[in-house]
């Protein structure tokens, strides 16, 4: 009898001990979840809310956004990139700038994740190549020249300026990924095919491919920018007037001009367009397709007036 009592007593104590440990373990889970969901981001009025734009049968883009729960840290009076959850940095701040997260979907196969700045005003950059943004009304990620983008903002257009990590997925596989800096491509960008084979890998700096050859009028004003890969002109080319407006834009392939090149008047209107071979190895002679005066009137049309060839 004593042995049975001792056995049952020990078993009860063991079960009681196991149950106490279990309760303590389970009791820690809500606290961990609450810490993970803690919100110190007091200036977000929509904290915890979703803004959902539903898709329809058409291949249109929809956007789902949620304000994240954040704890930031300070380091020598500067906010670190990322956020802190359980002492781990994550991606709320990018290059010291506060961002929010957005999701977009095109059709049934393509999804995009991106971050955007809370304040859509951006530093003046008259030499920016393209500004990428999310058009809330049209539900699309688009791009515009800097001046056109700023003009649209002044007209009250609802744009979300991309800033931070970006990824595009095709059937849940990454197809393109990179970073934006105030709407311009920045740092490493990679593009893949449907089998996740790398197609292109480029490094950018505020919209320009790293390795670009840049010439200046003076310390601040750019004369021209040529994309150089492997020591050879290969990619976009831009020339500017001393007032910052674009003078010429075109593209090189392996050191040769290809495609349509456009020249502009100093007031920003088109001056003329020149058609070069579509591919670098073709021998077609370049010719002028159109010419305009400074007021925008067509003064020459190749189809009407006959081809006018140019020497390069």
Low-confidence stretches: 15-80, 83-89
Order of helices and strands: HEEEEEEEEEEEHEEEEEEEEEEEEEHE
Count all strands and give the number: 25
Gyration radius (Cα, Å) is 28 Å
* Count of distinct structural domains: 2
**Average predicted local confidence, pLDDT:** 73
Characterize the largest beta sheet: strand count, sense, and whether it forms a barrel: 12 strands, antiparallel
What is the first-to-last residue Cα distance?
A: 110 Å
Shape: globular
Tell me what you see in this structure:
Strand 1 (50-52) and strand 2 (61-66) form a beta hairpin. It contains 3 helices and 25 strands. Residues 15-80 and 83-89 have low confidence and may be disordered. With 312 residues, the chain is of the alpha+beta class. It has 2 domains: 40-210, no CATH class; 211-312, Single Sheet (Histone H3 K4-specific methyltransferase SET7/9 N-terminal domain). It is 15% helix and 46% strand. The chain starts with a helix and ends with a strand.
